[in-house]
Amino acid sequence: KRATRRQRCIFVENTMPSKRMPFQWENYPWKSTRQHGCCQSFRFHAERGMAAFCAKKKVKIAGGAIVSVLETLSPQLVALLTGLLSVDPATRMTLEAALGHTWFQCKP
To answer: Which residues contact 66 (CB under 8 A, 6 or more apart)?
Structure first.
């Protein structure tokens, strides 16, 4: 049985505690994080890594051009996200390592 749109909508806290912003299930990158689940996006990320996943995903940028997400991220941010979102807990970045990552020292 397929969930209704209302059931798929998860609310996450916004930066303003009195407000909530809707998070649509359709926008979430994967449907299942089970090792042999049905979600092709999660499997792709687990097998090929964060950089390959971001290279495959496309976004529209200012001016209307469509580029890969990887093109919009700094190499330092990709490295940080790769460490934080590692599927294998043994290789996942610790909080201490993440907070000391070079991306936090980058100037905009």
So the answer is: 58, 59, 60
The SS3 call for residue 23 is strand
**54 within 8 A of 78, measured Cβ to Cβ:** yes
pTM of the model: 0.60
Q: Tell me which residue has tokens 């190499």.
A: 75
Blockwise average pLDDT, block size 10, the chain, 108 residues: 45 40 50 62 82 88 88 91 88 92 82
Pairing of strands 58-60, 20-24: unpaired
The residues with which 19 forms a beta bridge, in sequence order, are none
Cα gap 23→10, rounded to integer Å: 5
